[in-house]
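Quick review question:
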């Protein structure tokens, strides 16, 4: 159903773009159709009324389909439980390597100095002290 409504949404959007592009920018409709029968459908005024009405209907349909598709997408992707696997907190896991990957390559620091630093998840935590 979601794919079908998405295709209908694309067709409505294409029709809306086409109807808008056909209209004259000053609101005169197609701008074609000389004198004769001013009340007919193919007169300038009749075409302007038709295109204005078609634009309003297509725009309303586009908005309704957008809201419907958004509601369907929320229902399809909703989960009951919140995933908390990436939350920080609790005790950090014991690390064998120092938190700063470049601490061992400096040469001036000993392993004891690196081990005395508190274990932290943030690799830039001790950068201000150096």
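Suggested answer, residue by residue:
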């Amino acid at each position: 159903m979601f794919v079908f409504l998405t295709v209908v949404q694309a067709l409505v959007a294409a029709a809306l773009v086409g109807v808008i592009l056909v209209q004259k920018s000053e609101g005169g409709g197609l701008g074609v159709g000389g004198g004769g029968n001013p009340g007919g459908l193919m007169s300038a005024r009749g075409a302007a009324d038709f295109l204005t009405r078609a634009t309003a209907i297509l725009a309303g349909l586009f908005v309704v389909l957008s809201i419907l598709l958004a509601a369907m997408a929320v229902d399809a992707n909703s989960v009951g439980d919140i995933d908390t696997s990436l939350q920080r907190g609790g005790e950090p896991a014991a690390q064998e390597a120092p938190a700063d990957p470049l601490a061992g390559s400096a040469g001036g620091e000993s392993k004891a100095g690196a081990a005395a630093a508190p274990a932290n998840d943030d690799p830039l935590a001790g950068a201000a002290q150096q």
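Why it works: The CA atoms of residues 29 and 48 lie 4 Å apart. The chain has three helices and no strands.
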